[in-house]
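Both lines are retained for reference:
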Amino acid sequence: MNFRYYSLLFILLSFIPFTQSQAQNTFRIGYIDQEHIIIQMPQYKELKEIERTHYTSWINKMRQVYQEMQDLWRGCIRGEDAAKWRSQKNDQLEKELREMPELARKQFQRIKNEIIKGIKRKIATASAQVCKTHNFDIILNKSALKYAPPQFDLTKDVLKNLGIHKD
């Protein structure tokens, strides 16, 4: 009994210094507003221009298909001998015209995802450097927080690290 008592006491006492040293070691946690940083990035501004040209080109393609359909119907009125072929061709063009907006959206979404992924990679690298520079242990995204004091906001520091100087 005596041996069990002393061994249990030894085990319990051996954890006390460990837990005290753990309590003294505090974490420094900061946060960034990733959406704000993304909007400030030059690649994001280029993305808006890519979006504009992408949709303009798809609208032009849709107009061409629509014009081809109209030309096909005008030809159908003049010559009845190839009406079946024209009807099949028209059905094909109508299907293509219906699918174009969704195809354009999916294609642009792939382009956008690639660009955003590259931007987020740069933000992560800059955040890690700021974290080391300012002795923070963890940096979180502001969207994951309900409230955080402004003194822990590292958004401006990350922007400076990325070479974006905001007024």
Residues 2-161 form a domain with the Protein Binding, DinI Protein; Chain A fold (CATH 3.30.910.20). The longest helix spans residues 83-133. Helices lie at 2-24, 34-40, 42-78, 83-133, 155-161. The two ends are 73 Å apart (CA to CA).
